[in-house]
Specification:
By secondary structure, the protein is α+β, with helices and mostly antiparallel strands. The protein folds into two domains: about 1-140, no CATH class; about 150-195, no CATH class. The chain has helices at about 20-25, 100-110, 130-140, 180-195, and strands at about 1-5, 15-20, 35-40, 40-50, 55-70, 75-90, 110-115, 120, 125. The model has no long low-confidence stretch (mean pLDDT about 90). It binds zinc ion (2 copies). One zinc ion binds next to loops.
């Protein structure tokens, strides 16, 4: 996914890149804490233009994931959408302070200096994969929930409170804190004892 700087002008131009699931799986350096399926290619839409010394890139990433809700354990479709903006300055012969920056500036023609918001570029082609990877890492939820008001599972009988209520007596401790995985484990234990 490359950006050719000689084609840029002061007027924003739209560029669209699609990255398949494989692209993300290959670059994610640590497996995410939760399991999710990638249902569609990630789509990066950017508007890019240049000023005297800067390249300015404003974009949106969208994607479709299937994730497991951390409260009720249901699998649900998660629509991903995140906006980002990068101002990259001409490196103009300067050397980035960190070895990682030096490496990515020479490899990609771009290094990030402050998260994904600013960076330096050099040469005439910018390789965008590194930037897009960082954007996506920030956009994929670490603690997915199916909806803001998901009610979770009853810690006693395991019913999903999204589907109905139960007659269990509320425990003394606030039940919200209890992880649904712990709830399921407890229920399994109880079933094993009963049989
Ligand atoms: Zn839920
Ligand atoms: Zn219950």
């Amino acid at each position: 996914m490359k950006l050719y700087l000689e084609r840029l002008t002061g007027t924003p131009q739209r560029e669209v890149f699609e990255a398949p699931a494989r692209w993300w799986r290959e670059r994610a350096d640590s497996p995410q804490e939760f399991e999710y399926e990638i249902l569609a290619p990630f789509r990066f839409e950017i508007d890019v233009y240049k000023t005297a010394a800067d390249v300015i890139l404003e974009g949106t990433v969208t994607g479709e994931l299937e994730a497991q809700c951390g409260r009720c354990l249901a699998r649900y479709r998660h629509a991903l959408r995140e906006e980002f903006r990068l101002v990259a300055e001409d490196a103009a012969g300067r050397t980035p302070p960190d070895p990682e920056g030096v490496a990515s500036l020479s490899r990609d023609g771009l290094c990030l200096t402050d998260e994904i918001e600013s960076g330096w570029y050099q040469g005439s082609v910018i390789q965008l994969d590194g930037l897009f990877g960082e954007v996506l890492a920030g956009a994929i939820p670490l603690h997915p929930i199916c909806r803001e008001d998901c009610q979770g599972l009853c810690p006693q009988c395991g019913i999903s409170w999204n589907d109905g209520s139960c007659d269990c007596t509320p425990p003394e401790e606030p039940s919200q804190k209890q992880s649904p995985f712990a709830v399921l484990a407890k229920l399994k234990e109880r079933e094993a004892q009963d049989s």
